Amino acid sequence: VQLQASGGGLVQAGGSLRLSCAASGSIFSISPMNWYRQAPGKRRELVARITSSGNTVYADSVKGRFTISRDNAKNTVYLQMNSLKPEDTAVYLCNLERRGIGGDDYWGQGTLVTVSS
């Protein structure tokens, strides 16, 4: 499985970006997908999660501003980010979760989001 993230960039506070993560292989549709982020000097944190059936979970810091979705026909997961804040600046990484069934997770290469004030 390979994950290719895209969509990051520089945006002003209050703006929006949509991240995409395209997966290869046949296990995408049956796997939970996550977006994590890591800012310089900080721990990696879970931003949003979507199960294979479409149930979602969000970090408190992004609730009401970010939306995770998936298109199983395209093997792609998205993160729509609205009302961006400077504290959202980080490298965003997509993750295909397999650890729940005893497997190894897969990670994309990350895409940088920079929010200017």
Characteristic terms for this protein:
single chain, 117 residues, mainly beta
Entry summary:
With 117 residues, the protein is an all-beta fold. The protein has no helices and 11 strands.
Describe this structure in words.
The chain is an all-beta fold and 117 residues long. It is 0% helix and 49% strand. It has strands at residues 3-6, 9-12, 17-23, 33-38, 45-50, 56-58, 66-71, 76-81, 90-96, 106-107, 111-116. The strands form 2 sheets. Strands 2, 4, 5, 6, 9, 10 and 11 form a 7-stranded mixed sheet that branches. A 4-stranded antiparallel sheet has the order 1-3-8-7, with no helix packed on it. The N and C termini lie far apart (37 Å).
Which runs of at least 5 residues are low in confidence (pLDDT < 50)? Answer: none
Counting DSSP E segments of at least 2 residues, the number of strands comes to: 11
Count up the helices: 0
Helix content: under 10%
Mean pLDDT: 96
- Gyration radius (Cα, Å) is 13 Å
How would you spell out the order of helices and strands?
EEEEEEEEEEE
Q: Work out the strand percent.
A: over 45%
Give the end-to-end Cα distance, rounded to a whole number of Å: 37 Å
Helix/strand structural class: mainly beta
Q: Outline the biggest β-sheet.
A: 7 strands, mixed
Shape by Cα distribution: globular
